[in-house]
Amino acid sequence: MNDDSHLRRVVFADRLLDVAEFTHAHWFFGNLYEVLVKVPHRLASSEASSELPRSPFGAGSPGRYYAPIAPINAPAAFGALVAGWDRPSTRVPLIVAAASSATGAAATAYVLRFLNPKLFFSPLPPGEDQRRPLLQRWYRIHAVRLIASAVALAAIHHARTDRLRNP
């Protein structure tokens, strides 16, 4: 590999790490905010109105916050792994980041498919007898998402720090 193509690969890997770190920080802090202010409790118990429709992108829904960036999380982590594979010192953190990102993405897919529609997007909020177990499950799976995003973010940051220290 000539020096020019090696330099392009290094720059590309660095840019992917930048994107992965930004998107995973966005994901982590968004997930943390949802837990701290109990967004699910607020949305699950709210009645639909013209100001606050029960929809994925209605007022108050985190969907508007996540939609522009969330689809980039896992691809950025996997892209950084592939692009940075030639660096043994960052290989393990990038594998951890990609695996954590995939775990969080799988948990998110479950939440989006099986919990959010019942909790937040039905025409009427679920009754207390249905809402309580759904919210408990939501928070348990959200804990997995929060941990996965934190681990991915820490691993990506470690890989970026290593690349900056040892260009």
What's the mean pLDDT score? 88
How many domain regions? 1
The helicity comes to: over 70%
Q: How many beta-strand segments?
A: 0
Radius of gyration: 19 Å
Q: What percentage of the residues does DSSP assign to strands (E)?
A: under 5%
Gross morphology: elongated
How would you characterize the largest beta sheet?
A: none
The H/E string reads HHHHHH
How many helical elements?
6
Low confidence ranges: none
What does this structure look like?
The chain is mainly α. The protein has one domain. It has helices spanning 3-36, 39-44, 63-66, 73-83, 88-120, 128-165. The longest helix is centred in the C-terminal third of the chain and has 38 residues, at 128-165.
Features of the shown structure:
167 residues; 6 helices; 75% helix
What's the short story on this structure?
The chain is 75% helix and 0% strand.
Per-chain topology:
Layout lengths: L2 H34 L2 H6 L18 H4 L6 H11 L4 H33 L7 H38 L2
Helix pairs in contact: 1-4, 1-6, 4-5, 5-6
